[in-house]
Every structure is written in C-alpha cells, then in structure tokens.
Write a structure and sequence with these properties.
The structure holds three protein chains of three kinds. By secondary structure, chain A is mainly α. Chain A is about 75% helix and about 0% strand. In chain A, helix 4 packs across helix 7. Chain B is flat and about 95 Å long. In chain B, helix 11 runs antiparallel to helix 12. By secondary structure, chain C is α/β, with parallel strands linked by helices. Chain C is built from 13 helices and twelve strands. In chain C, the strands form two sheets. Chain C has an eight-stranded mixed sheet with strand order 6-7-8-3-9-10-12-11, with helices on both faces. In chain C, a hairpin with a 5-residue loop joins strand 11 and strand 12. In chain C, helix 4 packs parallel to helix 7, helix 5 packs across helix 7 and helix 7 packs parallel to helix 8. The longest helix of chain C is centred in the middle third of the chain and has 18 residues. The chains are: A mainly alpha, B mainly alpha, C alpha/beta. Chains in contact: A-B, A-C, B-C. At the A-B interface, helix 1, helix 5, helix 6, helix 11 and helix 12 of A face helix 6, helix 7, helix 12, helix 13 and helix 14 of B.
Chain lengths: ~300, ~350, ~325
C-alpha cells in the first residue's frame, strides 16, 4: 500500500510537471503577448514591463526561472492585475467556485443516485420511462441554455431569485441548479443502467434464495456493485465543477476561478494561466487518486499496483 | 391416471409412422438473420430512435437545403426592420403589402441588425451540424487509429500512448481550445491565401480551427474506447477459436474484430456528434466559435442573452433547437446501441 | 396419498414476454419425500431450473404461475406473500446454483455472506454467527476456515466457491436442498468432490435433495428417483432403475444412447438426438418431442400423449405405449 501511494505520488508529480511544461511552451508559441492588446501603453513602458517580469529573457531561461520558483512555492505575480500575486488570486477565487461547485456535486449525487435506482427498480413502467425521458433531455440541454433560461424565468420574469452575485443562500439556488443539471441527468442514466446490470447478476438470485428482504438485497448487495461507474464519473466531474464553470460564473456574475481562468487566457496573463493550470492539474490528479482509493474500498477485486 | 383415457377415439391409422415432411411442417424455426440485418430490424422497430432519425432528417433539410431558396439571406440587413417581433412587418414591408405585393413573413422576427432570424437559425444549425458531423468523423479516424495501434502493439508502446492520453485529459479543455485556436488562426489565414487552400477561406478559418481543435482534443475518449474494445476482442475466446481453426489475420480482423468493433464505433461516433455540437455551441457562447456574420446556434444564443428581457424568443429559439438536435442524436445513438448490442436481443 | 415434502400438482407456469407467452412449465406434476434424492434431467430450456425456482418462490419477473399448485412442507408456495416466503427461503429450502463464479457477491467477504443467512433465520448474535460460519466452512471441507472467512470470493477457486455456496445453503439446516447444475461450471475432478460432498452432507443432515442436471451419469449414481423433462413437461419419471433399465419414452432412450457406458461389453456407438428443441413461443400441438422422434407417428403430431402408469411411481407420456395397449385390445376383440 505504501509502495503504491509513493508510486502514485511520483506519477502525479510527473503528470503535473508535463502538463505545466506543455502549457508553458504552447502558451508562448501563440503569437502575441500580455501587453499587445493594450494600445495605451508606449513601447518604452511595454519594454519596461516585460523586463520587470523577465519576459525579455530567452524562452528557455524564463521556463527554468518559473519552474525554480514553483518549486519554492512561488507562483509569481499576475501580469495584468498589477500588484497581486497569482497565489492570492487563486486562493480568493477558488473558495467561491468551490462552494458553488461542491454544492452542485452534492446535489447531483443526492438526486441522481436515488432517482437512477428508482428508475431501474421500476424498469419498463411509466415512472421509469418518465425518468429516462427527463434525464435524456437533461443531458441534451447545454449549460448556457439552462443558465440563461432559468435566469430569464426565475430571475427576470418571475423575480423569485436574485440574479447577481452571491449575497444570500437564495443566490446559490440558480447557479447550483444550472451547474448540477447535466451531471444529475448523467448520473441518473449511469446509475439506472449499472443498477439494472447489478440486479440481473447471479448474486442477487443467491441473496433472494437466502431469504434476504428486498430492501437489504437492494442496498447491501446491488447498490455497492452498481455505484462503481458513478464513482468513476464523479471524480473528474468534481475537479471541473469545483474549479468553476466559466459560463455559470459569467451569467450569474459570480467572482470565481472559472471566469478568472478564461479571462487570464484571453488576456495572456501568462503567470495566471500557469498558476491556474498547475492548480487545476494538481486538483485533478489528487481527486483521481482519491477515486482510486474509494474504488478499492468499495470493490475488493481492484488490485492497486 | 386411467389407462386408455382416449382409446375410444383412437384409430389404427393414427399409429402409422409419420413422414419426415409431416414432421418438418411442425418445426417452426425462427429464421436466422445476419448481424447487420438483425441490427437494422431492431433499429427500425425502435420507435424512439426512428422518430429521432426523422427529426434529424427534417432539421438537416431545413439547415442545408431550405436556406438556398429562402427569400432572405442570413447576412442581409433590412433597414427599418430591426428587432421585429415574430410575424410582424416593417413599415416598408407593410406598404408593399398594402400595394398588393406579397411579402414573405419573418417567422421569428428579425435581430437588432434587421436580419431575418428564421434563416439565421437555419444557417446556425447548419454550422452546428457541420461541426458535429465533421468533428465526429475526424475524432473517429484519429481515435480509432490511435486506440487500435496502442492495443495492437501492447507493452510499453501501449503504456506510453495511454499516458499521453491521460495527460491530455488532465490539461483543462478551455485552455487548450483557446490556445490552439489562437495559435492556428494566423497560419490558417496565411494558408488560405494560397490558391490550393482557398477553400479555407470559403469555409472560414475559424470553423477550420474549431475542427482542428476538436481533432486534437477529443479523440482521446474514442481512443480509450477503441483500445479497450480491441484488447477484449483480441483475448476473446472466439478469436482464439478462429485462430485455432486456422483463420488468417486478415480473416480475423475482417470477420471478428471489425464486426464486433463496428457496432461500438458507430454508436460512439453517433454519440460524439451531439457532444461536438455541445462544445461548439459552448465555444461560440464564449465568443471563441465561428466569426460574425456567420451564426451558430451557440453564438445566436449568446448574443440574445443581453436582450433577453425584451426579446426572449431570440434566446428561446436557438436554445430549444440546439437541445432538440442534441436530444435527437442522443436518442438515435441509444437506439443504435440497443440495436447493435446482441446482449439486448430478445 | 401420504404427505410429501414437495408436491407439485399440474403446474403451469408461463413467462409473459413482449414477444408472447412462453409456456415454460406445462402441466408438471412431481413429488419428493423427506430424505429423498430426486434427479431432474433435461436439456437447456426444458424447465428444470424454472421448476426449482417455483419451489423457492423466486420465479424471475415476467414469469407467473398460471394454474396448479406447489406445496412445500405444507405451505402452498403460490398463495404465500413475499414476507412469508422469505422465512422459508434459506431456512427450510435452500438452493445452490450453476456458476459459483458469479453467484457470490464480489464485494463482500465469504464470512459476511454466510453470516447473513444465519443472522436472518436464527436469533444468533454476530459472534455466534461467525462461529457457526467457521463451523460450516469446516463442514464443507474448507481448510483454514478462520482465514477463509475473511477472504473475498475472487480470492477462492471455483470449487472452493461452490463449497461456500453449499455452506450458505446449509446454514440453517434446510429440509430440502435444490442443487441447480452445481457442477456444470467446474473441472471434472472438482465435480466429483462437490457431488460427494452433497451426498455426504445429505446423509449427515438428513435433508432431501433435488439435483438438477443434464448429465445422466451424475444422476444414476446419486438419485433415488429421476424425472426427465422436455419442453416444460415431465415426459418420464420413475426410480433410477426404471429410467435406466425399463426406459419407456423415446426421448429418455435417446438420452441414454448419447451417454457413454463403461460397463457395456461390446462397444456401442454413441448416438446424438437429431434436431433442436422446440420453439417455446410456438409449441406444437402434439408431443413436443415428435419432430425429433425416430418413432414418430401421425397422432404424435396432433395430440399430446396422456400419462401412462407402469407402476406407482413410474410413468411416462408417449403414444407408443398407447399403441401397444391399443393393439393388445384389438387382438382381444378378434
């Protein structure tokens, strides 16, 4: 087990390193730079800025400097938001996104798993068909459609919910709804099919033959087997949801990391791009690791090598 | 149990041997059907899938054929006809109607530049469908090739190739999409100057760059599926059996691997179409998609959001249509999966 | 009639599939006394397993008893509700299945799955249940039961898993053990061990056994009586000797011809039964075996033959028997 964890750790560091390297060179290969778009800046000021952040150095030197700093935990200053450190921006924006995202993951699990089970247990009946139809529509509606339509309906037309910011719990309802819409529908479909699969297994017949009640055979025998695909799906989904969806943050004006990331890309805030990418990649690798451990706990057949 | 319960009705000729022909008549065998015919039969019987297919065909007809003879064009701006509600006419058009002329109605009104919204929606869904279909084809090609090479060679080749896939998975989508589309826009524009590549100009460099981005990014899922499928098949008992019976590699690939893979490939590709449309609309929504004045469903919805309070139909129309397109492809893909999966056979 | 442990009377059971009604059991009557071993033989789809699940009351979903009765130990299975059935299952009647690889839940330890049955039907506490589970594992011949009990099914071999299945089945010392092709998925050497184990436990615990198989070799050595099923019907039933040495039905004869015989002096050719089983969606009007029967007569294609009793417990349904009787009667009239 210890050996496995060490191996995974090395793998994780390597993955993050490769991702960072790729991003660094790809980012710099793109024509243009952080200060190209700013017309107000004079060539001298631009050169001064570039010299200040070391952008006038050869690319490879820049890369080495950046990597050295990263090893010391220094993510560098933002190139665009003057006077702010990248790490500070991430640490103030991430909790906002994570709160909305975490709630969304929770909602999609709490709704998705039971509803999927109910559909599987009522296979072929009207309730099953209804759930399947709704879930299929659910995965067909893009999130910007959910966002803008719910915004229009509840925010503007009915005026029930606030449309801007995150001042009270009411502010969370729409973003969480919009963000959990697709994963919920997806989990319902996933849960239904894996539950049907589990219900058809021989060990369910064994349980019945033992005289186990339906509730126990469902919760003890079927659910634990059926939940595995959902665990696999939830891992990466969680990483993406926690770091914030650009669309949801844009539509509901939430000051989160997702919006920050996209604007840093379009602004060519190299330091910000690198910092956020490394942060996201680390989170992703970490969550995947947790998922593997959870998987092993649920299914003893999994051999962690 | 009595002896002879029926003896009084029995006649000696009943006990004559029955001929083979008589026996055969009773054997009602279900006709054996081939894989393709069987799958097709199941698909045709699936009402939901068939309805989805009809919807897809209708949408395709409206997006690819109708705009070519529609009285308005998607970029044609009519002065004085800005922001009209559905089925209304501008003053000028009203004057023409009063003069006895026939004016084609604006079914969905016009946008803020006075362009007919119905035709913009049609062209928008043409773009979305084109992106979906072509991207799916590219993904199928790259993914299937990559996945089968990894599975075929196995060993360290497989490990390295799959490691690359993992890394691409870990890099945030948005970052790659934005960077790549920025990176290739300039070279593409230069390339379109060349006579041989003039078609890029016709299609639009943005659209081409979207294809390239999709091709570079989204083949990983397909590659994983194909790889695991080929791995399973390679080890499967019937392939071993075929090998034992002396079947050559060619025959195994054609007869066993292909027939068993093709179902998965078709299904995954079909389900890839809606997800490509999904992503394209998402990109257009971010303003990274096709360039104006060319509309896509995503950019139409995006630009409608600002005026949502006054002109909600400008948002509802593309939103509903894109959901409908994705839904139809998903349902049709599900139908294909059921039809191709012999385990579902009843 | 004396009280039987299992008494199936004129059971009709159908699966109502979208494609139509599949008559899986068509007028099946069988009985079994305490401590007796009954072999049920037939090819796939002949209704062996369906009969077993009807006794347990676990007929899978689109299946329903259309008419007839299943009486087990005085309970009318068809009239009991699910809750009452659960008290019988695993306690008074247990079942082991064909594939031990998939019949155990992969995510729970062997011990957990044995204890579950014990905790369900007795008032033993967890500690006692664990002790009983260890005892059961020892009973079914598993070494180091204290260690095995903490293992997961995937860590055991196929034979070992089937032993665990047997341990689960015997947890509450049932009156009847139904073994549904218990050895089909196992190696030949393991097969013999498992069968021996079942017989040994039968003598030790004095339970009745229904052994479902398509292997005539197995039943000949183990069973008191044999029922031969074909297309949802019991076409011949009798003592093992009746079936082997006084065979009445053409299908049974066919089955016997297709089994190698070690004791035969001269080497006889093995003969396969030609043709394929009937389509259960469109069963023929007459004898279901008629299209494959070498002795098929015109009446066989038109009408189902009635049962003919050769002794109190040996009966079969074949028109050839009727023909012999008919000709006998004809001679008498002349």
């Amino acid at each position: 087990m210890t050996k496995y964890i060490i191996k995974r750790l090395v793998m994780a560091v390597l993955t993050v390193f490769i991702v960072a390297t790729l991003t660094f060179f790809l980012m710099n290969a793109v024509p243009g730079g952080p200060y190209e778009a700013e017309k107000s800046i004079s060539p001298q000021a631009k050169a001064a800025l570039e010299a200040k952040f070391g952008l006038d150095q050869p690319l490879f030197t820049q890369y080495l400097t950046y990597m050295k700093n990263i090893l010391h935990g220094d993510f560098g200053p933002s190139l665009k938001q003057r006077g702010r450190e990248v790490i500070d921006i991430i640490l103030t924006k991430f909790p906002v996104s994570a709160k909305v995202g975490g709630l969304s993951v929770l909602v999609s699990l709490i709704v998705g798993i039971p509803v999927g089970c109910i559909a599987a247990l009522n296979r072929g009946k009207a309730s099953d068909s209804t759930i399947i139809v709704i879930a299929t529509i659910g995965i067909a509606v893009p999130s910007f459609v959910v966002c803008s339509l719910s915004m229009y309906l509840f925010g503007v037309k009915l005026g029930w919910l606030p449309t801007v910011g995150l001042m009270s719990w009411k502010n969370y309802i729409m973003p969480v709804f919009a963000l959990s819409f697709y994963p919920t529908a997806y989990i319902v479909r996933l849960m239904r099919s894996s539950m049907l699969d589990a219900l058809g297994q021989d060990y369910m017949r064994t349980a019945r033959a033992k005289g186990v009640s339906e509730a126990v055979s469902l919760f003890k025998h079927a659910l634990r087997n059926a939940i595995l695909p959902v665990v696999t799906y939830v891992g990466p989904m969680m990483a993406y949801t926690l770091t914030g969806s650009f669309i949801v943050e844009k539509v509901f004006t939430i000051p989160g990391l997702g919006g920050e990331f996209v604007s840093s890309i379009t602004n060519r805030d190299y330091m910000m791009i690198m910092g956020t990418t490394i942060f996201l990649a680390t989170l992703m690798v970490f969550i995947n690791f947790v998922v593997d451990i959870v998987y092993k706990i649920i299914d003893p057949r999994i051999n962690l090598k | 149990m009595k002896r002879f319960p029926l003896s009084f009705q029995l006649k000696a000729e009943d006990f004559l041997p029955a001929s083979d022909a008589e026996k055969q008549e009773l054997v009602v065998m279900r006709e054996s059907v081939g894989f393709w015919k069987d799958s097709l039969r199941r698909l045709v019987r699936n009402k939901v899938a068939m309805v989805s297919l009809v919807v897809i065909v209708i949408i395709m007809f409206f997006s690819f054929i109708v705009p070519s003879f529609y009285p308005y064009s998607y970029e044609q701006q009519q002065k004085g006809a800005e922001n009209m509600r559905p089925m209304t006419y501008s003053q000028e058009e009203q004057a023409r109607i009063d003069a006895g002329e026939k004016v084609f109605p604006h079914f969905l009104g016009t946008d803020k530049l006075g362009r007919d919204y119905a035709v913009r929606i049609m062209v928008g869904s043409r773009i979305s469908l084109t992106v979906g279909l072509i991207a799916a084809a590219i993904i199928l090609f790259i993914g299937a090739l990559y996945g089968s090479i990894a599975a075929f060679f196995g060993g360290w080749v497989d490990i390295i190739m799959m490691r690359i896939v993992d890394i691409i998975y870990t890099i945030p989508d948005v970052l790659l999409i934005v960077l790549i589309s920025f990176a290739i826009r300039r070279p593409l524009e230069q390339l379109s100057e060349q006579p041989a590549f003039h078609w890029i100009h016709t299609v639009g460099p943005n659209l081409v760059s979207i294809f390239i981005v999709f091709a570079l990014l989204y083949w990983v899922g397909m590659a994983r599926i194909v790889r695991s499928q080929v791995l399973v098949l390679r080890e499967s008992e019937y392939v071993t059996a075929a090998r034992a019976l002396g079947a050559g590699n060619g025959r195994i690939v054609r007869k066993h691997l292909l027939t068993n893979c093709i179902g998965t490939l078709i299904v995954t590709t079909t389900l890839q179409i809606p997800s490509s449309i999904f992503t394209e609309s998402y990109l257009s929504f971010l303003g990274l998609g096709v360039a104006a004045p060319l509309p896509s469903l995503g950019s139409l919805a995006s630009s409608a959001i600002n005026g949502m309070n006054t002109y909600p139909y400008l948002l509802v129309a593309p939103a509903v249509l894109i959901s409908l397109i994705i839904l139809s492809f998903n349902l049709f893909g599900d139908g294909l999966r059921d039809a191709f999966d012999p385990k579902m056979k009843k | 009639m004396s009280e039987h442990l299992v008494d199936i009377r004129n059971l009709h059971l159908s699966f109502f599939t979208p494609a139509g009604e599949v008559k899986a059991l068509n007028d099946v009557s069988l009985f079994l006394d305490e401590g007796e071993v009954l072999g049920v033989v037939g090819e796939s789809g002949s209704g062996k397993s369906v009969t077993a699940s009807a006794i347990m009351g676990i007929t899978a979903d689109p299946g329903r008893i259309v008419s007839g009765k299943v009486i087990f130990n005085g309970h009318d299975i068809g009239s009991l509700d699910e809750k009452e059935l659960r008290k019988i299952r695993g306690k008074e009647v247990s079942m082991i299945f064909q594939d031990p690889m998939t019949s155990l839940n992969p995510v729970y330890t062997v011990g957990n799955q044995i204890e579950e049955a014990i905790l369900l039907h007795t008032d033993k506490n967890k500690q006692e249940a664990r002790e009983r589970a260890v005892e059961l594992l020892r009973l079914v011949g598993i070494n180091e039961p204290e260690k095995r009990i903490k293992q997961y099914p995937h860590e055991l071999s196929g034979g070992m898993r089937q032993r665990v299945m047997i341990a689960i089945a015997l947890a509450c010392e049932p009156k009847l053990l139904i073994a549904d092709e218990p050895t089909t998925a196992l190696d030949v050497t393991i097969q013999a061990q498992i069968l021996e184990l079942i017989m040994e436990l039968k003598h030790k615990l004095g339970m009745a056994v229904i052994l479902i198989t398509h292997d005539l070799g197995i039943v000949s050595s183990m069973c008191d009586r044999i029922a031969v099923m074909y297309a949802g019907k019991v076409i011949e039933c009798g003592t093992t000797d009746d079936i082997f040495y006084n065979t009445k039905h053409e299908y049974t004869k066919g089955l016997l011809r297709s089994v190698p015989n070690l004791y035969e002096e001269e080497s006889t050719r093995l003969v396969a039964i030609e043709g394929t089983p009937v389509d259960m969606l469109n069963p023929p009007a007459g004898c279901p075996f008629a299209p494959r029967c070498p002795q098929c007569m015109k009446i066989c294609l038109k009408e189902m033959p009635p049962y003919h009793e050769f002794s109190d417990i040996h009966y079969s349904a074949c028109w050839l028997t009727q023909k012999a009787e008919f000709e006998e009667a004809g001679k008498g009239e002349e």
